[in-house]
Amino acid sequence: MPRAARNTCDRYDLLVLPDDHVMGDRASSVTVITYCDFECPDCRQAYFLISGLSIRFADHVRFVYRHFPLAEKHPHAQLAAEAYEAAALQNRFWPMHDVLFQNQAHLEIDDLYLYAAMAGLDVPHFKDDLHAGAGVLKVRRDVLSGHRCGVQGTPTFFVNHALVSDSNDLEQTVSRQVKKR
């Protein structure tokens, strides 16, 4: 888990952008931005935690997924992030997100094609987008914003712009923020 991330970011780095992947009501009073890596075991645990929180706080919290592939530790993470973005071009980013985390141990290119089919994608179109690098710039932008905010590992969370670098603290922080609003 990251420990040395800064407590504040440039305010623009934590704005929710039109092409960010958001689960929940955009007008929610609490926003959780998560920097994750599809091959990271701690991110998989956070995936299950966030799934539960999204149900528990459905009317009050929106969750934003951002990429932070740690290629030196997880050799398939960059390609998985790009596959996720190729799925987003077909408006199937959340189904692909779920399939990738559920099958984290198998992220080779042929696996990604299978997951695209499982997520309901037009697979030939997905392959074209993936091989054309359609998601590279979005992944790069997410990584750069994470670096500017001091993200050094995954998962790292920002709850209403406040750093939460430990999954164990996320539920309590979200709960406190919801009660404040």
Mind telling me the C-alpha Rg? 16 Å
Element-level helix/strand string: EEHEHHHHHEEH
Global structural class: alpha+beta
Percent of residues in beta strands: 5-15%
Q: What is the count of helical runs?
A: 7
Mean pLDDT: 91
Task: Please mark out the parts with pLDDT under 50 across 5 or more consecutive residues, or reply none.
Answer: 1-7
Terminal Cα span: 28 Å
Approximate shape: globular
Number of strands: 5
**What assembly state would you assign to the polypeptide chains in this entry?**
single chain
Strand order of the largest sheet: 1-3-2-4-5
Residues in helix, %? 40-55%
Which sheet architecture does the biggest sheet show? Answer: 5 strands, mixed
List the SSEs and their pairings:
Elements: E1 21-23, E2 30-36, H1 41-56, E3 61-67, H2 77-88, H3 93-102, H4 109-118, H5 123-131, H6 136-148, E4 156-159, E5 162-164, H7 167-180
Parallel strand pairs: 2-3
Antiparallel strand pairs: 1-3, 2-4, 4-5
Helix pairs in contact: 2-3, 2-5, 3-4
